[in-house]
Specification:
Layout (H helix, E strand, L loop, with lengths): L5 E10 L2 E4 L9 E11 L6 E10 L5 H11 L9 E7 L2
Parallel strand pairs: 4-5
Antiparallel strand pairs: 1-2, 1-3, 3-4
Length: about 90
């Protein structure tokens, strides 16, 4: 049985090999983007509230490369009817 409310925080990094969760420094050297992840769920029958904020993007990489990686690997969190996902961008 899970304990509610529950929450989780961390970082997801988009690399040429896909999404990697790594919460502590140093972050992966081959990352092209870093997204801060925050999740909370108030009760067992409630939807997860997820906030993803892009906080870093490698400079000097063509936008087409970023687009192709996102097309290939999707987002860091799978879409689900059990989640409300908010996307933000600080850069």
């Amino acid at each position: 049985m899970s304990v509610y409310p529950k929450s989780d925080r961390g970082y997801f990094h988009l690399t040429e090999h896909g999404w990697v969760r790594h919460d502590a420094l140093p972050f992966p050297a081959d990352r092209v983007e870093t997204w801060q992840y925050e999740m909370e769920c108030q009760a067992q029958d409630a939807r997860e509230r997820v906030c993803l904020t892009r906080i870093w993007r490698r400079s000097g990489i063509a936008p087409e490369i970023h687009q192709s990686l996102h097309k290939r690997f999707g987002g860091p969190i799978p879409l689900s009817p059990d989640r409300n996902i908010t996307l933000e961008c600080n850069i």
